[in-house]
Amino acid sequence: MKLDIGCGQNKRAGFTGMDMHPYEGVDIVQDLNQVPWRVNDASCNEIFANQVIEHIPDLRAFFTELHRIADDGCIITLTTPHYSSRSSWADPTHIHHLSVDFCESFTSGYLAEQLPGFSVTSKKISFGSVLWTWPGRLISALFGYTFYEKRFCWMFPASSIIV
After folding, report:
1. Residue by residue, what is the 3-state secondary structure of the chain?
2. Which pLDDT does position 129 carry in this prediction?
3. Mean pLDDT of successive 10-residue segments in the chain (163 residues)?
4. Which of 125, 124, 121 is nearest to 107 (CA)?
5. Do the strands 124-126 and 160-162 form a parallel or antiparallel pair, or are they unpaired?
6. What is the pLDDT of residue 137?
């Protein structure tokens, strides 16, 4: 199964949609804070969650559920606003304001032993499409995301994170 978590009214084609609201096209109505989710163990070969994790109070429970429902080799794509983005702070329902390394605790950090097999295959900071974001793009391309986040993210804010 391909699962679109938090699909809202814009479920991806070919995916099973899961959302807490019973919008048209939502296949599984599920409050993500109520675990376990109504998805079978190891049943997903692709999971997509766009602009969802910043709303979840317990990220450990969220990642545990991803681990439970993901089959071996499952590709999980998570997007969230970058903490320097205005959109990270403009929505009062955002609980977390995350950096590009937000998954590290679950893949190689102190929580990794609870979720064996998770690994980050790619991570990217998106700067949107406006022209004046070029300094942030250039700095992160030349010196890396960590350097950019430590020294320049408030001068040249990013848009989002894709992991």
Report:
1. CEEEECCCCCCCCCCEEEECCCCCCCCEECCCCCCCCCCCCCCEEEEEEECCHHHCCCHHHHHHHHHHHEEEEEEEEEEEEECCCHHHHHCCCCCCCECCCCCHHHHCCCCHHHCCCCCCCCCEEECCCCHHHHHHHHHHHHHCHHHHHHHCCCCCCCCEEEC
2. 83
3. 97 97 96 96 98 96 94 96 97 97 83 77 92 92 96 96 97
4. 121
5. antiparallel
6. 95
Q: Closest by alpha carbon to 51, among 3, 20, 87?
A: 87
Sheet holding 28-29, edge to edge: 28-29, 16-19, 2-5, 44-50, 70-81, 160-162, 124-126
Tell me, what's the pLDDT at 109? 72
**pTM over cut 0.70:** yes
Q: Which residues contact 10 (CB under 8 A, 6 or more apart)?
A: none
Tokens coding 120: 């980050």
